[in-house]
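Figure 2 data, in text form.
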Amino acid sequence: MILPTKHIKQDRSLIGVGAEILLLLDNSKTISSLWNRFQKRIESIEGTGEISFDWFILSLDLLYALDTIDYQRGRVWRNKQ
C-alpha cells in the first residue's frame, strides 16, 4: 500500500502518488486546488489509472507523517529541509 508491490504499481502506491503531489507543490495551495491540479496531471500521464480522492488524502497523510509537507489555515505546502 505505501510502497509498490507485485500487486500495486508504483504510480498507485501511496509513495508514488505522494511524489506526484510534491511535484505540484511549488508554493502553498488549498487542498481543492491541489486536487484539481493533481487530477489534470494524472490524466496527462499515459497508463495511469484514476486515483480516488481518498487515496489522494492518504498520500497527503503519509507526506505529513514524514514531515515533508505542512498544513495550516486551509493551505498545504512543502517543508524546506
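Caption note: The domain at 10-78 is CATH 1.10.10 (Arc Repressor Mutant, subunit A).
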